[in-house]
Amino acid sequence: MEIRKAGLDDFKTINDLALKTWYDTYTSILSPEQLEYMLKEMYSLEAFTEQIAVKGHHFLLLSENDKYLGFASYELNYTSGTTKLHKLYVLPETQGRGAGRLLITTIEGLAKKNGNNKVSLNVNRYNDAVKFYLKNGFEKAGEEDVNIGNGYLMEDFIMEKGL
After folding, report:
1. Residue 79: per-residue pLDDT
2. 48: domain range?
3. For the chain, how many structural domains are there in total?
4. 24-33, 83-92, 111-120: which has the minimum mean pLDDT?
């Protein structure tokens, strides 16, 4: 498996991966209306451009044999000494093969290289990925309900891992 930095020209690839992973991940957790709302808010071209150009998010694409398997986004120095893992998604058929772990360890290495000593993330409290993050050394540091508009909440665990 190979990882490369992604840029604005990778929007379609990341959007396609998001569509393939989000329905599998969130259909049993979110209403169809909230799922559509969140995809539109987080994965439109405008949102993607803002995340990279304004908010300083970095995207990584994971591939194997010229097929894209997943992506992640992160922000160095989100707070002092902390890298924020904003997104990590791998195709359902790829899960369990080390793809997610490879994305995490890559981001951890980049965080350390840039003087950060912790990685933080938010994950839906009902998402099976909570187990994945615990297995990869993250600990629950709190809970947060984020109003994302249109009457919807993101009900998250805050998870952290020291480096």
Report:
1. 95
2. 2-162
3. 1
4. 24-33
